[in-house]
Design goal:
- The structure is a homodimer.
- The first copy, chain A, is mainly alpha-helical.
- Chain A has one domain: Orthogonal Bundle (Arc Repressor Mutant, subunit A).
- The first copy, chain A, contains six helices and two strands.
- Chain A has helices at about 5-25, 30-35, 40-50, 55-65, 90, 95-114; strands spanning about 70-75, 80-85.
- In chain A, strands 1-2 form a two-stranded antiparallel ribbon.
- In chain A, a hairpin with a 5-residue loop joins strand 1 and strand 2.
- The first copy, chain A, binds a DNA duplex through helix 3 and helix 4.
Amino acid sequence: MKKADHTECLSAMLPVRDALDVISGKWKLMILISISSGNHRFREIERSIPKINSKVLAKELKDLEEHTLIKRTVYDESPVIVEYITTPYAASLGKVIKELRDWGVNHRKKIIGK
Amino acid sequence: MKKADHTECLSAMLPVRDALDVISGKWKLMILISISSGNHRFREIERSIPKINSKVLAKELKDLEEHTLIKRTVYDESPVIVEYITTPYAASLGKVIKELRDWGVNHRKKIIGK
DNA sequence: GTAAGCAGTTACCTAAAGGTAAGCAGTAAC
DNA sequence: GTTACTGCTTACCTTTAGGTAACTGCTTAC
């Protein structure tokens, strides 16, 4: 039983909270995964994620762009093409996503095993 | 540019979603961090987490217990003592929390640096 | 000329998460 | 005997996340 160090405890909690503020919610990581798996167009992303709708997708894409996790580029050919790509900064989330995925796989096993 | 593999993409997204279902939200990880930092009593945990309130804490503790991430023990001394401890299963979240924390620290630096 | 695809937007609604404030039963301290 | 601590619960309210459905302007395909 460790001694409760209030300062140390806070210094662990606050960054975790910061991270969750950016990535939690039902869709953000799924969108990042979809884009980095090769889906770059709005409708492509939409179709790749079950049950998402265009309003939510549009909003989440804006959020992700504000956090500089994705980049939106408009190619002014006719017809206009809009492309979403992940930024190098998004790659820094790779480990986070990997650990979440591994844990999720294991957790599902545990629950089904019951 | 990778080719979009729908199946592979889904098999990455769904476990991540499963994991987030368990740990996302404003308080769950903070509570786990608090308990594993040595806060084991209800009021102790409450005081260690800024801005949380007892209604929310009580509810989140129940959720965490249902997911077998913490264990609640009542010691029937007088006065009754209630103790919360993390389970070995919660330890499996260690890497997830570490990566979230590291990313959060870095993200904060990046934002302040702007 | 009508249908269908593109990248969204708009108005409206529901459900869930979270917050506020008060209170309760028990104990113990002053 | 009043105050304060424990571990909660209750009723009520607000805020936000997310969902539905329709519709826009533009383009190309049949």
